[in-house]
Amino acid sequence: MSGAGRSVKRGVRETAWLLRPVALRIPPFMTETENEILKALIELDAAVKAMPTANPKPNLLPLFTRLDQLAAQLPRATDPELVHFLARKSYEKARAKLEGQAAARGSCGR
Length: 110
Fold this sequence. Notes:
By secondary structure, this protein is mostly helical.
């Protein structure tokens, strides 16, 4: 057998481990805090959309307070853009970011 043939067999043997099934532990897309923020943002959106016909008008202050509390719980490794959106109360952009959509650019350039 030529040197090239032996090289191919050795290469196949050396990479055979790549063909074995591997259980990957992929972290979830969002942290639990981010998931709670998304739920609060969806709740806020529903409350705002219901305001024109609601009687009495919903009190949004508890939702804003909850969002501030959750944002304060985010780990340091959180996406800086998400932190920026939440700090600036750009809730539509924060929701788009958490849903994996591109957030619209604002006056600050983000």
